[in-house]
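Revision sheet: structure tokens.
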Amino acid sequence: MPNIAVVDMAGKSVGEITLSDAIFGIEPNAVVMHMAVVNYLANNRQGTQSTLTRTEVSGGGKKPWRQKGTGHARQGSTRAPQWRHGGIVHAPKPRDYSYSLNKKVRQLALKSALSDKVLTGNMIVLDALNLDSYKTKTVVDCLKAIGAGKKTLIVLEDNNAFAVKSIANIKGVKSAQVNTINTYDIINADTLVMVKGAALKLEEVYA
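Predicted:
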């Protein structure tokens, strides 16, 4: 079982935590993580692109010239795709790009991403993130003290409004909870900062 040092907001070691092998100690599965990332990005696509086909552009109701005898190629409308201001061939239309992954695949991808952070030494366990007001500077100082990277994901134990809004003000830093954490955010972050209580909750949910 992987053992990780637990640090306080000043960056000082205050103990050690033994993490579950079933979540933080598996062999990362790159294929499954890729599937989860593609799924996440697809589900976040708006799909609002839309252009006009030849039936939707204005004009072109009259045949531009007679069928035969002009020396021109035959034309039925000035709004055909080859004409200026004509419609678009196979025009993109609004569509839903989202799809679902099997539950076991999603869980394996999440565990693989967490295990990869532990394996590469890019996971920090924070004893607690205690904020009693909106203090962005306190969070910035904490991240500097513990040596977090420019892109950091902080996993909180609960929905602490002070912590969430203070973190939201920092460029490149994102917060999540145990029930909102996802594979993409973990992989996208340089450093994963896990509050000790959140790590224990994750083990309860996924172990």
